[in-house]
Amino acid sequence: MNSPLQPATQSIFAKCVAVFYVVITVGILSGCATQTEIGPAMRIEQSGSAQVLERRRSRAVAHDETENLLYIVTTDIIWIYSFPKTKYVASFNVSGAENPCANKDQVFVPQYGPDDIVEYAHGGTEPISTLKDPGENPESCAIDPTTGNLAVTNYGGASKPGDVVIYGNPQRPPTLYSDREIYYYWFCGYDNKGDLFVDGM
Questions:
Q1: Is the C-alpha dihedral spanning 137, 70, 149, 190 positive or negative?
Q2: CATH assignment, 10-200
Q3: How many CB atoms lie within 10 A of CB 4?
Q4: Partners of 114 in the β-ladder
Q5: What are the pLDDT digits (tens) for 118-159?
Q6: DSSP secondary structure code for residue 27 in this structure
Q7: Which of 7, 87, 130, 183 could form a disulfide with 161 if both were Cys (CB 3.0 to 4.6 A apart)?
Q8: How many CB atoms lie within 10 A of CB 160?
Q9: Partners of 131 in the β-ladder
């Protein structure tokens, strides 16, 4: 694989950030834009689909523990760099990756096509769990800093509008939210009080 970051100039790095989905695993990070708050016109329902397909251990890659990790996500490869030094750490293949989100312990990557959300440990290169999102088109995600719940936006399609699904207790079905004013759902993000914001059209 050719690395998207060459040890050359900051301008190359800036271009990569503009092109690829980027998430830094440090503290609590929503990783998504925050433009439109879900309003009172929302519809709430429970989904009967299973949440966790499987859970496994993942060996973390060796890196300088004093630095944060920068994840650059393309549709088929995830690149891991130290940050802010941007030193290459590892890369691995994915399928249909969309906009990721992270906190200090976990990285979640929605996958368009497989219709699932894959969880990686901080610094891990192998999935430790897979959340199923059947029949949907997961676009982005965010982690609630107050509860640890995972919000995922489902883009929508020609036959039905998108929605937002909240994964909380793995023993219970996820909860779906939708707003009649929004058909296509894009990015999402939490503020530090646990309020979720979503943009779309």
A1: negative
A2: 2.120.10.30
A3: 19
A4: none
A5: 999 988 899 999 998 888 999 999 999 999 999 999 999 888
A6: S
A7: 183
A8: 12
A9: 52, 117
